[in-house]
Amino acid sequence: MERRRLCLIAWTIAAGIVTGALSGCDSQCVTNSRPAHLIANQNKTLSFSVQSVGSNASCEWLISSNTISTRLRLTATIFNLRSSNGTCVDNFTIYDGSSSFSPILLSTCSRPNFPIYSSGSDVLVSFTTGRDNFGTTSNFTVNYEVLKISNATIIDSVNVDIGALHIFKYPEGSSQYPNNANRGWVFDTNDSQYVVHVVVAYVDVETASAGCDFDYVEIFDSSVEANRRDRLCGTLTSREYYSTGQSLYITFHSNGSQTRSGFNLTYTAALRSAIYPAPVCSSSTPLAAVLHNKQFLRYPAVSTTYTTDRDCGWSIQSASLDYVVHVTFVYVSIPTSRDCYSDYVQVYDGSSTLSNRLASVCGNEPGQEFYSYGRSLFIQFHSSTNNIPGGFHLSYESVLRSEAPPHAGGTEIVNVDLANEHFLKYPEGSSAYPNNANRGWVFYSTDPKYVVHIQFTQLDVELSATGCDFDYIEVFDSSAEEKKLDRLCGFMTRPQYYSTGEFLYLTFHSNGVNVGTGFNITYRAALQATIYPEPVCSPSLPLAALLHDNKFLKYPALTSASSNNYGCGWSIQSGSVNYTVHVTFLFC
């Protein structure tokens, strides 16, 4: 294949200092210049190169195809960009369109996952360098070509007009789809203020024992087979998808054996600002995760770059303890750093950063999925870098616990009867608990006037030399892993705990070696006013601290806000000089 290499030598001047040489062609590659316009060819692979670039350089290349309704493919034979201590010094960005306001296909200083596919006939490539003191340089060679669509797949274009809902069915009529079919449909809206909304109403497609290996429908968030959102087969109903750009690509494949009735869907255009509203940084109100209805969080929502020193957080909550929250990262473009310590998105299993952290996300790896144990997931975004192209985009919904993976579905919901005391034993029967167990129980009272009371009647859990490091039970004053009250192991008798609200969460973990017989507990509902009586401000008598028996002081006990100009004090005293007083703040 013929190759073309850029040949113009340009120098970038910063503060009167010559900072580097760019080898290129078609235009001068300097800050604020017009981008070099490169024309892709359907029968040739062309290339452009940058070599020996120092600090404070900036260049852009607009790559276009002269053929209507074609896409571009970009690859790299050389790709070396500078970084310092895991943080980007230089940045390479590919926009899916002709301007920096287009969606970002890639933004990275590490070697990206080529090839990169466009959704239209243009891409804008931007390259900027920063300052460093290492004397190193960046260099890369990028190849570009018009994507040749396989002749085996018949692709139709579907115009998604604004203000109308349309129905699509494959195959048409009442017949079954044929064997060895390969079909594709690009659903596209012409207005950049709108995205494509597709609801797959019904699927009846042959399924294999191992999954969708025989016949299947695939949905891509693009106009080509890139950024796959889902693969469907079997008998399904009601699957909903939104594009992030102006196109959704749906393909259908069948093998040479069984056939079925196919699929049908509805499609329409949806206003982008309504589907992807600009999020408030650290919203005080949780985002509501609706059962089997994907919604989206995108940051930043409007601009294509984010600023430095941002710390934003969003709590996502399901409507019921019968549901868990399911989050999928549709798009991630955050500079890669070691352990994602510079810029990142972090996912916590609970309603705040005090909860158990599930992951730190950075780089450019969409498709990562997370499930909550309880009702909430917390998303935190942090930036320490200024004006970086990119951000993140995720979908969220709630699903039934039975639909979640085993690690999330291993939590039981226990309704605490207001009138009776009940018993729970783990494991059931007389056997020892298994190795590598991860179990959870959320105890909750249906009446907010009552709190949860549990008491251990038997405990036999492996004890390590340094404490509860191997196998252990943890008790949380919440419906998730937050506000931890205690960690238990070994042999203990009759420790008891009260929740401060309607929920108390108990978890059990074992490692891969020794086991014990587990634990027994009793649980009941207790009247909140009895457990947390309104305390006297500065009582004359000390509060009595009993041995291994948790009691509680809550101020104010019944109201949610304290009064002004109040100064109260409480003395807490043990019953013997052989005991010390232990206080834990559950809420402050």
Write structural notes for this entry.
This protein is mostly beta strands and 588 residues long. The chain has 3 helices and 44 strands. The strands form 12 sheets. The protein has a 5-stranded mixed sheet with strand order 3-5-12-9-10, with no helix packed on it. The protein is globular, with a radius of gyration of 30 Å.
**Mean of residue pLDDT?**
80
- Kindly, what is the distance between the CA atoms of the first and last residues, rounded to a whole number of angstroms? 69 Å
Please give the radius of gyration in angstroms: 30 Å
Instruction: Characterize the main sheet.
Output: 5 strands, mixed
* Strand residues, percent: over 45%
Oligomerization state: single chain
Q: Which spans of ≥5 residues are poorly predicted at pLDDT below 50?
A: 1-32
The total strand number stands at 44
Largest beta sheet: strand ordering: 3-5-12-9-10
The helicity comes to under 10%
Which structural category fits the helices and strands?
mainly beta
Q: What is the number of helical segments per DSSP (H or I, 4+ residues)?
A: 3
Q: Overall 3D geometry? A: globular
Could you name the key traits of this structure?
mainly beta; 3 helices
Give the topology.
Elements (H helix, E strand, L loop, with lengths): L7 E7 L2 E8 L11 E5 L5 E8 L4 E8 L6 E9 L2 E2 L2 E2 L1 E6 L8 E5 L7 E2 L4 E8 L8 E9 L7 E6 L6 E5 L11 E7 L5 E12 L10 E5 L7 E5 L1 E9 L4 E7 L8 E10 H4 L11 E3 L5 E5 L5 E2 L3 E9 L4 E11 L10 E6 L6 E6 L7 E3 L4 E8 L4 E2 L1 E10 L5 H4 L1 E5 L6 E5 L11 E7 L5 E11 L11 E5 L7 E5 L7 E3 L4 E7 L8 E10 H4 L11 E3 L26 E3 L14
Parallel strand pairs: 3-5, 14-16, 23-26, 34-36, 43-44
Antiparallel strand pairs: 1-2, 4-13, 5-12, 6-11, 6-13, 7-8, 9-10, 9-12, 15-22, 16-21, 17-20, 17-22, 18-19, 18-21, 24-33, 25-32, 26-31, 27-30, 27-33, 28-29, 28-31, 35-42, 36-41, 37-40, 37-42, 38-39, 38-41
